[in-house]
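Journal club side-thread
Mid-discussion, someone asked how the predicted structure for our own chain would compare to the paper's figures. Pasting it here so we can look after the session.
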Amino acid sequence: MVFLDSGSTNLALAREIPLDRPLTVVTNSISIAAALLERKVLKVIIIGGEIDADTGAAIGPSAIREVERFNFDLSFLGACAASVSLGLGAFQLADAEFKRTLIERSDRVAALITIDKLETRAPFQVAALAALDHVVLEHNTPAQILSTLYEAGPDVILAKP
């Protein structure tokens, strides 16, 4: 069972799931759920509650209560900001709380992080980077940033160009 958190990068990931890959995918994102419905072999579960206009997803108390009922094999967190010293960040308190609940309910946790979000900060900390099992980065991530991320704890994976 895979969870895809809201965000444009995870939406791109959803569109890349192989057409013949039978998975159960859970999401809190309206746009990700809509993209996955085209994949007939997937079982799609959407987390509900009030939809936040900024994230396009359910992140409030109802969504947290629903997520607490699942045990995810792998969750892909949306990353608003990521820093070795500050960890993963979110722009909204509710989103940070939702992401922390995902970490607790997941066997493994990954984040796809674009260069523009690396070594940036957001008002609310989600978790230290060491809470992640995998970080997927763009192929042209600067070497200086890569070297600090390798030491931060998660397995660093570079995307192919």
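Post-session note: The chain has one domain: 2-158.
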